[in-house]
Amino acid sequence: MASGLHIVPLREIKGVGPEKVKELNALGLATVGDLLDYYPFRYEDYRLRDLSEVKDGEKITIQGTLYGEPVLAIYGRNKSRLTVKLMADRFLVTAVWFNRHYMKDKLTPGREIVVSGKWEQKRQTIVVGESEFPDAAQGPKARTGTLQPVYSVTGGVTQAFLRKTIKQALLQFGMMIEEVLPRNLIERYDLMPRRQAVAILHQPTGTEEGKAARKRMVYEELFLFQLKVQAYRAVNKSRADGIAHAVDRPKVRDFVRGLPFQLTDSQKKAVAELLGDLEAPFAMNRLLQGDVGAGKTVVAAVALYAVVTAGAQGALMVPTEILAEQHKRSLERLFEPYGLQVGLLTGSLTDRMRRDLLGSLQMGLLDIVVGTHALIQEDVAFRKLGLVVVDEQHRFGVEQRSVLRRKGMNPDVLTMTATPIPRTLAITAFGDLDVTTLKELPKGRKPIQTYAVTHDKLERVLGLIRREVELGRQAYVICPLIEESEKLDVQNAIDVHAQLTYAFPDLKVGLLHGRMTAQEKEDVMGAFKENRVQVLVSTTVIEVGVDVPNSTIMVIYDAVRFGLSQLHQLRGRVGRGEHQSYCVLIADPKNEVAKERMRVMTETNDGFEIARRDLELRGPGDFFGTKQSGLPEFKVADLLNDYEVLELAREDAGALVGEERFWTAADFLPLRSYLNREQVAGRDPLD
Ligand code: ADP
Ligand code: MG
Predict the structure, then answer these.
(1) Hey, which residues does 438 pair with through a beta bridge?
(2) What is the pTM of this model?
(3) Candidate of 256, 259, 261, 291 to mutate for ligand 1, largest count of ligand atoms within 8 Å of Cβ
(4) Which stretches does DSSP call E strand in 479-529?
(5) Which ligand is nearest to the CA of 291?
(6) Torsions phi, psi of 313, nearest 5?
(7) pLDDT in tens, 320-364
(8) With bands split at pLDDT 50, 70 and 90, how would you rate the model's confidence at 550?
């Protein structure tokens, strides 16, 4: 970070000679400023513990009095085992050193000692890693009672040298550490001053203070990063590379008023942002994210309507035919009173229908087209494509989207997703998209109640389905998943369908799977929508987007076979109306991870939380903390856990960059010089 200390050379630190400077350079550290920004990645805890509170296997530090003579056993070559009794508080414990026979002479009975190491509960033994004698250890090297920073070191730089040098640097230059964050942000979040935070990160005193220091640096890091990204975008947005749609605002307002419900505050804000982007001359590239059921579709509908009022066409691309069909119908219903023409383009149109449709599209007879990836085939041409909406964008590759984009004169693009990790995270972090988030669900939604049950409870599950159907509601039953084999999945669906038809002779049980023709799928979905089918047995083809608000129960067979985010998507098919909804996960989890996965699903309805826990359970390193992930690397921040801070930082940085004052007032000079140093105006900071 830019501050005066970034021009002070390392040799100014007492005890750092030319040799050491070279070694520090090898760690990427050139100045005192760099060194002070080199934060530990964890801490070694040397705070004294009470033995009555520690758990087996924990790494602990205890203090005690040596009790009796040490015993040295030598075995093999260079191998030894040194044991001694220790009186710690009221406990008599054993301390063991391996291969450190030279310690023996120091272990005189009665002497006080502090030992750190792994605690073995059963044998009341501590396997000593490090030890210290209070009567000898004084001055800067004493560790007892402290948290010691652990830095990443390589080459000639040792942990001890780095600790000592940073300590010395703080002593000499700590007072010169300058604040970099704007004062209003520091006040808003009650952030610790930079000077104090840096010192505490290197020399933590207690957990509370450490937390506050970390919070500050995480915010700073993410804010400065976002500032760079947003400043770059701001500079580029002045380029008029898109269409400035002349949106007919009064018409759009009437359309919104005519909707069957009031928009939520988030939806209103999203609409306002979108309209602003559509009218602006730069090409919009915006992500609309919101949890399952947050109501993304209607926001897209308003945007599509808006470009039509400006004389352009809109396209909505979705991943499945079922979804295309559904969206086409609901857009038609919304747009019909306003005279808009909506077309449907999927892979299963007849040649004739397809030719007609393409003709109308090209002549501008159609205002809106909904389709699957059939939309991006070469012969699809528009008269004037103004807005492309891509729903459930995580299902599409980047290239597919850019093809659709090229079909217009650089049309505006809106992508929508409910899956917040890891794609969205990357996008959010990189800032190559503007992001709008729907933070709340429409009013009156009741949280879905989720249960995990074993297969032998099937009778009771069927009872629950019957009860809901008798209340006038409908049910989905998702069939067991057999990885990589659509054929077997289909067979499962057929079997379950037969079973349920038998179990519910008086109800209409429908069947839906990927091997059915488009017409068959459409028929059964249509029947389900109109409640002519009460129970719908399906493979995961309904995973994304399907919207039948009267359905209140989602039963998922073999739930452990599904990913958590997928389960959340499936569950999101219910809970879309005002009725209490249920999700039943049928599973016989065999191991702890599987059990934990079921627990996560029953404990939370929050898609982001679920995605986060999913990544945790699958183990980190999948996407984070590795260079290959393509995510920017941060010193203190951890994108997975600090995601909310990233969102704040993004908003704050965006607001600041948007202020005239930021580009003119003197108090922002340090921030602007930081941006200049990183050459923001010149090139993409993310290249
Ligand atoms: P998702 O964000 O998962 O795509 P949808 O757009 O399918 O969600 O919306 C879910 C359901 O909520 C739909 O039935 C939709 O009509 C309804 N809905 C959307 N916005 C509102 C609102 N503001 N008030 C009430 N219901 C809404
Ligand atoms: Mg949707």
Answers:
(1) 290
(2) 0.69
(3) 261
(4) 509-512
(5) 1
(6) -105, 160
(7) 888 899 899 999 999 999 999 999 998 888 899 999 999 999 999
(8) very high
